[in-house]
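task queued by scheduler; priority normal; single chain, no ligands, no partner chains; default sampling; output format set to structure tokens
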Amino acid sequence: MPLGGAKGVIIADPSQKCEALFEAYGECVESLGGRYFTAEDVNTTTQDMDWTMHKTKQVVGKATVSGDPSPFTAIGTFDGIRAAAKMLNGTDDLHGVKIGLQGLGHVGFDLAKQLIAADADLTVSTHSNRKNMEAMLALGAKELTDEQLYKAELDILSPCALGATLNEKTIPELRCRAVAGAANNQLLNDECGVMLKKRGIFYAPDFIINGGGVINAGQEAFTVYDKENVLKQVHNIFNTVYNILDESKTTGEPEGVIAQRFAENRIKNGL
């Protein structure tokens, strides 16, 4: 995409969201003079973006255009998991593949439903979202705590909650063969990518595999929104993830290093 990257953060209790808060946020976004577009992310909705638009037009992911980006994030993550499975097993068929999914928010819940439909052997953990957990259990998923999930015998661990879950404490506990999930900033630091590589665990870089939602919302910023074209780009995450994993397997470089170089080259070449 011909866009850079940035993140807007509101330091507040999500349970206390209100129109005035997002109008104030909209004023902040507007003060940037068109250099930044905002959209939904963790703990925000299309309603919140409607309130933000009271003060700025620099909003994407609008309910009347591309809508909630989280289903597209889930689609791209699902394709990235298929790519990881192909690297591990020689096929992207998820039948019987043991997957542990951490987090059942907007993205995690959509992703879990896709994994169940693909006949994966799914285990899930969540700190909240009991309603979503009950729905998953009814569909045949199993439940573990986060701590149990790290130590479970899995093919793929899929972090879909908050960041820094892969760190000096958890990585030595992992008994999975690959990590492929939607959470941002899954690695506490670059050294954690090296630790995963030393343990022989494949890692699908977070900003590659979880790009579907940004691709969906971002198209509003520079062209006429076209859902079919968006889905074509989102499904290409499969190829990007697989190529990064394959290069890492060949060269021994951590996947995060390869992904960073890939992104920097695209920026330098104006792609």
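post-processing summary
- The longest helix spans residues 70-89.
- The mean pLDDT is 94.
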